[in-house]
Amino acid sequence: MPLTAAASAREILVRLHDVMAARSSAQAKLDAVARIIGEALDSEVCSIYLLREGLLELYATRGLDQAAVHVTKLALGEGLVGTIAKNVETLNLDEAASHPDFAYRPETGEDEFHSFAGVPIIRRERAVGVLAVQHAEPRKYDDVEIEALQTVAMVLSELIANAGLIDQRGDGATRPQSTAATRLEGLKLVEGMAIGHAVYHQPRITIEHTVAEDIEAERHRVYAAFDKMREQIDRMAQQAEFGLDGEHEEVLETYKMFAYDEGWSRRINEAIDSGLTAEAAIERVQQRTRMRMRQIGDPLLQDRMHDLEDLSNRLLRIVSGQMGTAAQLGLRQDTILIARNLGPAELLEYDRRRLKGVVLEEGSLTAHVTIVARAMGVPVLGRVRGVRQTIADGDLLLLDVTEAGSVLVRPSAAMEEAFDAKLLVRQKRRAAFAALKSEAPVTLDGDRLTVMVNAGLRDDVAALDVTGADGIGLFRTEFQFLVSATLPQRERQLRLYKDVLDAAGDKPVVFRTVDIGGDKALPYLNHHDEDEENPAMGWRALRLALERGGLMKAQARALIEAAAGRTLNVMFPMVSEAWELDEAKALFEAQREWLGKRGKRLPTEIRYGAMLEVPALAEQLDLLLPNIQFLSVGTNDLTQFLFAADRANPKLAERYDWLSPSILRFLRRVVTPCNEAGVALTVCGEMGGRPLEAMALIALGIERLSITPAAVGPIKAMVRSLDRGKAMRFMDELLARPPRGLRAALAGWAAENHVELA
Ligand code: PEP
Ligand code: MG
What we know:
- This protein is α/β, with parallel strands linked by helices.
- The chain has four domains: 9-162, Beta-Lactamase (2-Layer Sandwich), CATH 3.30.450; 175-202 and 332-434, Phosphohistidine domain (Glucose Oxidase, domain 1, 3-Layer(bba) Sandwich); 204-323, Enzyme I, Chain A, domain 2 (Orthogonal Bundle); 449-686 and 703-708, Phosphoenolpyruvate-binding domains (TIM Barrel), CATH 3.20.20.60.
- The strands form three sheets. Strands 14-15-16-17-18-19-20-21 form an eight-stranded parallel barrel, surrounded by five helices. The chain has a seven-stranded mixed barrel with strand order 7-11-10-9-8-12-13.
- The protein is elongated and about 95 Å long.
- It binds phosphoenolpyruvate and magnesium ion (MG).
């Protein structure tokens, strides 16, 4: 008797519930399931194939020859069953033999059967087996029956996982595309190589129970979870409006649309009606959507699918009470973290010893999460497509962010060997760079340049010794704020600054006052009560600090006290007009006086500096330079404003080149006034850490760089192989009449002149 309603699926699940609860063996349970399904669908045949050692083995059958059990084995992609598993798709055929993938297996005696329907048994988006029914009469199974089969497949997935029957080879299973090693390409964000196991930042929930004990209770659980999820999404949307969250507006809109989508909640409810637990029902609906989307294959819809996956996982986490990110759950082994995108604070939550690399579906070169990862020495590959379809939790990954960025998923032994060999070469090269530690960055024509490091975390100071750098040219004080759950009080700030100065010894440290706002939002600092459409150009950094005088005062006191008896170098971010610097400086001076009056020991000298990040400031250098001792160009922000191209927008990540006439000409214009005013000019953006770009900066007349520690060796090597005078002459010619491919022209010149570009 064919099924007519979800109630019938429920009857099957009630019977399966008893099977699952019985104390019998896994084989007996599978036999019972085959019998129950066969009977319920009135099918002559019901068979269960499980993936074992890479092959689909007939594990239980009602209707086929019993002698074929554990004998018939199909490769992935072989026959109808193999095709279902390989593609993770459902097949429903009234005439099986006419399907191009049909493969006849005489030992099963299946030649009498015409119709065929099969569904994959899925665990973590991969097929771990196949459930198939066959009929002597040619007939197509109707939708309700297929639905019932798919629901039963979920229960089977639980059964075989509990019985330890998940194929252990390569973590057990096949993926939608293939089981073979796969290479995914991406954008090089932070250089490096790493081996590790995939861990999703937002862990997928493993469903433990699929069959509901109490349908009403499950329904309530799902209602409550929906309410909570909608609340969360509304809050996120609200925060985004107030510039407190970097989450993309478009994504939030889509989230909102799905969160309130009646169809989605109705389908989940229907799945609960059929006897599934809330978790299994959510997953069941998601599986069905995934299959549909795969069939449609529209890239636009695929993007939407991505959002729905996110939301579905969120709902699952809420309903199962498993709310934490992978960081909160703790990493157990060498990890390569996978995320759509991350905030800098989220990344900082991870244990640096276990976090070996990051793969992002989005990401851009100068987003703060990238800078934080660089500071942590963690390679990052960005803008990787097809991550979720290809990488499963626990997969072994070889992350190679060197020449072209790629990640190898489930590598073969030969690939691992080749990777190790490359890693060795790289380590040797790094050792050669490390040997430059005690060599000064002197050009071939005898100019001693200054190479400093960027830092932000307490441990970064160690980089001074490791690299032999000349000092810390940029200490991003906001990192302490980002890693903290609450606003760091003055005492905590003071302790950090003092530790940093102590560790740096004689070498100078330039503390930049907090640069928060933009993509460095602090959840605990309710810093805006108006909409902010462009937080990067909004109320951030010095703008915020000048208005929130209390914040800057506390920081000023902490810095002044920490530098007692030594030189304090303070730098202000995002100065847009000269008077802003004057105000900031006045605030510091007032604190110096205040502390002095209270008998505190003061710094021997306070040196002030500004960051040149807002192009407008370049037009006020005559007003600014007399009041500062140093100027530091933040090319990350400067270029985003010069090109009007959001530094965190992945779509623009590759659009503009640092080696463009606009940037180089802009920077050249700044060099002379600084020299004339006796103001030390440094470049502290990411640009300076790239050998070719650094060569260009030096050719413009810039003598000081502050860069990521890992770049010190390669930059020193470049400097020591460079004839600066010659480079400056070439740059003059180049900028007089810039060719279209300025980068290629510079690279060509470097090669001709044997400049070492790592
Ligand atoms: C810059 O903008 O180049 C810079 C160094 O500051 P941050 O990257 O922290 O904004
Ligand atoms: Mg900046």
